[in-house]
Amino acid sequence: MTVSLGQPPSSAAIPVLPTSEPPEVLPDLIAGLVEDGRPVARDIALGLLRRQLGRVQGRVQRAFEAHDLSGLGAARWLAALTDGIVGAIHTYTLAQVPPQAGGAQVPPQEAGAPAEETFALIATGGYGRGVLAPYSDIDLLFLSDAPLGPQGRRAVEFLLYLLWDLGLKVGHATRTIDECIEDSRGDVTIQTALIDARFLAGNRAVHDRFQETFLAARKASGLAPFLAAKRAERTTRHARYGESPFLVEPHVKEGRGGLRDLQTLYWLARHAFGVQRMPELVGPESPGGGLLTPQEARSIRRAWNFLWTVRFHLHYVTGRAEERLTFDLQPVVGARMGYTRHGVQDGVERFMKHLFLTARDVVRLTRLLEPAIERAALGPPAVVPAGDAALSHAGMALADGKVLFAPDRQVADDPAIMLRLVRAARDRNLEIHPLAHRALIRNARYAVALRDDPAANTLFLDLLTGKDSARHMRVLNEVGFLSRFMPDWARIVGLMQFDTYHVFTVEEHTIEAIGVLSALERNELNEIAPVASELIGQIQSRRALYVAVMLHDIAKGRGGDHSELGAQVALELCPRLGLSPEETETVSWLVLNHLLISATAFKRDIDDPKTILDIAETVQSPERLRLLLVLTVADMRAVGPKVWNGWKATLLRELYWRVAEVLAGGLSVPERDTRVARARAAAASLLETMAKADLDRFLGLGYPGYWLSFDPDTHARHAEMIRDAEADQAPLTVRTRVIEARSVTEVTVYCSDHPGLFSRIAGALAVAGASIVDARIHTMTNGMALDTFWVQDAAGGAFDAPHRLARLAVLIEQSLSGRLRLDQEIAKLRREPARLRAVTIPPRVVLDNHASNTHTVIEVNGRDRPGLLHAVTAAISGQGLQIASAHITTYGVRAVDVFYVKDVFGLKVENERKLSTLRAALLVALGAPDVPVDTGVRVV
């Protein structure tokens, strides 16, 4: 069995656990608190304790940051040293508040007063396990045989206030033994905390009686209720902190694959067998008969140590009990742990990959150990022969209504049975038994033998393209089968991109994309992605589509263009999987071009005929266009919940139909004059009730580019807007229209044209809180500007609140009249969260005179911020250029804005000096407002 945890790279300083015990602090401290049998004054004691606590915390931090202590070692040191301080406080408390009604510290028979019940001071929770993080709570239980009397309650209060005055966070409870037993029966959280109960000071006999009683109560109740409660608790916790162990901002303590999952295994083992350490489960003489191999026990220890090390760094870096590893903390913690750049991978990416591999191992260890503990404690399941002969003949059986390997079958003798088991579970709608998961994990290494087995590859392809394929791919990934079956897959496991756009690691994103394909086939996304839902039923190359989705990001993290490298991987892998030469070529082409449609839809003017003709020339066939559209939708939907919206769906849909029209042949892109004439005629047919003079005037206003940019309904709205504006002699008209189907609001501005108009409107929209996703800018033949903006709110929905729309119109008017100080107002806008600032977005400018026959295309990449579009368009206008259209896209904190521009003569910008000056101005605009950009260095 191999449950491997990726070893830390040689540059990472992961210290070994210290063998020496933590230093003793108790005698000297007690001597300072109680002199000659008399306690010192409270303020003096508090000062002594504060100094001692500072020395303890400082000593552990220095040893940890010098790499003399690992995270687990530091946690144990800190707990042990804290024991000394708490013990000293307990001694001082009893000296101040003796457990005697008369107040004198003499035997009760001499004092003539009955003695009160004394208590045992017990550590519980994580502190009870003997580990403590720098800013974690200290959980204490004041335990007694009978309820405490007045003196006992005073002693508890005195001790707690002293701890609080030291600045410690203390969780506490005061209970009798009977109350503990009763409360633990009704609350699994209390029962769990008491499992870790550890004596600190006071009446040890009380502690011993509790342990004996509590052990008997646990044996009487059995493991089953506790196991069910911990599973339910884990399910709730994962739903809150993340179902996947591969979230790019993981919760180290509570997330899936985190410390809490390891602690759950410990609690189960402790409840079932009373063990204190996981190595006690190794060997045939151990409880359960050897539930762990030595290597698995070492894997648990490595995971414990690594996660505790990360947790300690998080606490020390933030100065608080921070458990979430956010983007801003990842490079800091990675650097502190010694991760540096290696080849094409940054240090932070190497650190995060190690973290994800550790989380993956915790998931595997949970699947491996938990069912073994359950069966060792509750007895083996009732394994019955499968209900049909085929299943029995295939070497499988049923237990608890779930499928598992038959007892007489050895995976090592027939590795393909692993794939057959998963297929049987799929075909019969059965769950895979936990013991089968355990067997899959322990035997995953035998998948290597299946790489060149045609029957096994056929089985795998059937699972990939069959029902609920994402679910089964996730099982094969989690147990380690996929990484051994496909070595290229192993290279993307745990691989993240250090940005704020992707929510999952690469392999988890890929499995999510496979799930989107299945959802499309089940017609579950009809409303969200209607075109893709319709097209997926028309696709002839279904197997090629599923394999292409699985391989579309297979070459990430290697340096170079992952699309080109992935296409080469596809050429090598697809024949092995059993795909035909035609299917192999299709998969390779799809991987090579999987970003083509999204890049075109979001970064180019799809109203430009050249844009459509270029993509049609690349695609060449309707089948490939269908495949590419469905692949694009699956890829985007799998990135994260906030990436897909109605506007993007609209752009993809419109691009698809325009390219499909070209591929269908005929006059797909007729001559420009013919198309303009058709657009005018269509608009006129909708304006039959308009006065002929007004209609003729409107039809003569637009240049050809205007008529080709909108549909007839929009032209009709513009005609009425212009007629009303001229009748009222209004210098400025602003109209808004909420388009729910596209999740956008259309803002149309009609006013006198002048340089910088786009920039000022963009600034006003930013102040209003609107995010521009697309824009069309037109100057009419009468010198007026008719500019249209499509905007969304911060959540990616339509900007539709009535009061916000009214304010938007007012702000545009104030901006154009000069009454709104845009720079000052933009500076007041909310900036991005601090956790996102660690993500570096280098400014980049691309000037392209080949993407369009009539315009220079400017593409700018930079960190998104309020007012960025205002600054960039002001720079463009400052160079004397006219913006015809703008296409705005954001990927996390990265803004990718594309502008189609002409010079004052209506021509492309082709002069090299002019292009160089433009590029420099745009780089300045892309830089932070208060940090000048060295344009000589950062020009691309």
Question: Could you characterize the architecture of this molecule?
Answer:
- The chain is α+β, with helices and mostly antiparallel strands and about 950 residues long.
- It is about 55% helix and about 10% strand.
- It has 40 helices and 17 strands.
- The strands form 4 sheets. Strands 10-11-13-12-16-17-15-14 form an 8-stranded antiparallel β-sheet, with helices on both faces. The chain has a 4-stranded mixed β-sheet with strand order 5-4-3-6. The protein has a 3-stranded antiparallel β-sheet with strand order 7-8-9.
- A hairpin with a 2-residue loop joins strand 1 and strand 2.
- Helix 28 packs across helix 30 and helix 35 runs antiparallel to helix 38.
- The longest helix has about 30 residues.
- The chain is globular.
- The N terminus and C terminus are likely disordered.
Question: Main attributes?
Answer:
940 residues; alpha+beta; 8-stranded antiparallel beta sheet; 4-stranded mixed beta sheet; 40 helices; 17 strands; 53% helix; 11% strand; disordered N terminus; disordered C terminus
Helices, by number, come to 40
How many beta strands in the DSSP annotation? 17
Helix percentage: 40-55%
Extract low-pLDDT stretches.
Answer: 1-19, 101-113, 928-940
What's the main sheet like?
A: 8 strands, antiparallel
Shape assignment: globular
Quote the distance from N terminus to C terminus.
51 Å
Decide which structural class fits the backbone: alpha+beta
| Share of β-strand residues | 5-15%
Major sheet: order of its strands? 10-11-13-12-16-17-15-14
Spatial extent as radius of gyration: 34 Å
Mean of residue pLDDT values: 86
